[in-house]
Specification:
- Helix 1 crosses helix 2 and helix 4 packs parallel to helix 5.
- This protein has 7 helices and 12 strands.
- Strand 1 and strand 2 form a beta hairpin.
- The two termini are 28 Å apart.
- It has 229 residues and is of the alpha/beta class.
């Protein structure tokens, strides 16, 4: 990330954000990098926050129709400003995924859920949520054969998989490793209504510069690393 006054950038400058009370982290970059290679017309970001993941995804793909859902007015206001800063159009919806009533489905649904436990955040976002229910509600918004993708703490993987197994196939588990050689985050991707097997990848280092600095997708990064072997 680079800084300039009250604005900082990600993806080597291709996505910009106003600095505020909550700033996108590397989780957002990784989440976007996990699905940017998938051809899709519509995408929904559940818990869009200030727009980190969705704006990184739009900067790295041909997706034109983007929707962001969040319970926090504060987050949505900041997201709208960041969308304008990046000359992007995002439909923003103030609603709670746990009780959002809609028939709409999307080609891709991404979410960086509030997986940490503890004191509620000052910006009125979710905390201490039931990740199984959150995942089921999120998957319900994916069209048949569409893609669901999330990034969570390694300790939450069992919750996510238990929610996906009844309705999804082609599940991929992609660990992101810390300096201690243990998975710090895990990206989980799945397709709704398919029956393909589950795949577990070797993963990458959490601070991989090809993702965080150069803005490559995960698929492009793996292909580049394979070509260097």
């Amino acid at each position: 990330m680079s800084e300039k006054q009250d604005i900082f950038t990600m993806l080597g400058g291709r996505a910009a954000f106003y600095r505020g009370t909550y700033n996108p982290t590397s989780d957002a970059v990784w989440l976007a990098a996990a699905v940017a290679h998938i051809h899709a017309k519509t995408v929904l970001d559940i818990g869009v926050g200030t727009g980190g993941a969705i704006l990184c995804l739009m900067a790295n793909s041909d997706i034109k129709s983007a929707t962001g859902l969040d319970i926090s007015d504060t987050m949505l206001t900041q997201c709208a400003k960041n969308a304008t800063l990046n000359n992007r159009t995002i439909e923003l919806i103030n609603a709670d995924i746990m009780n959002w009533r809609t028939p709409r489905t999307f080609d891709i649904v991404i979410t960086n859920p509030p997986y940490f436990r503890g004191t509620p955040a000052a910006h009125n976002a979710h905390h201490n949520v039931d990740l199984v229910k959150w995942t089921k509600k999120s998957v319900a918004r994916v069209r048949p054969r569409g893609t669901f993708c999330t990034i969570v703490d390694a300790g939450a993987v069992s919750d996510i998989i238990s929610a996906l197994n009844p309705v999804c196939g082609d599940i991929t588990i992609f660990p992101l490793f810390s300096n201690k050689h243990t998975a710090e985050r895990v990206i989980i991707r799945a397709r709704v209504g398919t029956h393909g097997p589950t795949s577990v990848f070797d993963g990458l280092a959490m601070n991989c510069e090809m993702i965080l600095r150069d803005g490559l997708t995960i698929s492009d990064t793996l292909a580049k690393l394979d070509s260097q072997c």
